[in-house]
What we know:
8-stranded mixed sheet, globular
Amino acid sequence: MRILFIFRGVVPPPKREESNRFFFLPESLEGDVLLPVWWSTAQEVREGLGPGSYPSHTVKNFHYHFLLAGRSGFAGVRHAVASFRFFLRSGMRLHRERKFDCIFASGHTMTALAGAILKLLTGARLIVELIGTPRNAYRFQSPSWSIWARIRKLCSDTLLHLTVLSADRVKLLYPDQLRGYPLLRGVPTSVFHDFVTLSQVSPADTSEDFVLFVGYPWYLKGVDILIGAFRAVAPDFPHIKLKLLGYFPDRVELDALAGGCGQIEFLDARPNPEVLRIMERSMILALPSRTEGLPRVLLEAMAAGKPIIASDVDGIPHCVRDGYNGLLFRPGDIDDLAEKLRRLLSDGALRERLGRNGLELARTKYGERVWAEEFEKMVAATLGG
Length: 385
């Protein structure tokens, strides 16, 4: 079965094959991958992935084709137009060389629109992957629900209906991801997690005295909620730190919320392998998001054997079972989050039990092999339907 993958980018693929999703797919699947990246030149690609990686980089049975956007050129309308043209032109060229059976578009906007057009032109089946919670698209990017955010939400919903109704199957992260869209109820779906290299996460025998947060943008991820809750309990746990790891270009408001608390530390964004090493040393992983799909950081924390505190919203309760591998709090409720933090910081036995259960769940339900098996089943169902 030959598949065309369309990704919006702009993060390059991992250099190690063992960290790449295509390394785990079975021999029965092959194809091409279209990916905009932040590199600007062929030399940068070769430096990043090794000799022979440009113009095509091969991982097992799949061949990457890159749009070199450059680090300053992957945002805005110009990049969207360039990516869209790249998807259509490259997709048609590769199809003429050898026919595709299926197109997999990650995301329901520009990538899926390109996939829908390519489906019409090639006759291939189309799978659209939803990577977030559509009903909350752009709703929590900032504290203000601006007119521009509302316009972007309207565009998102329009493209969602257009692309999902064009698809032969939709790949969901959790069962009710399309809740609120009654016109889309009849589309066939496959439900399973995103690819995460959990085998590369190592549970640590000991942990250091800090609660870890990983993510951005800060308002959508609820960093302000976490700071408020942690400051409420910090005087009772003077040896515990809160480490906030992510891309925070405007720290003014966050610094004001932290109020000079010496127990709160901001860490710059860094590569995933380094994030995993920090996570392995943490005591607790906290994710107070206002909206989420099924975040990979939670699966990584489970694979590291860490107890989780997270908001009870969208896809999170589908991987964090309250009282089993983590604690859930009411979304946006600082007092409830503070109570959950206090409870977990005070009870080492509870932390150990939640972490142990999460590790078992990660190994049996969310590993790379499980993802590959579910992906193969999804493609078979799409082509056989």
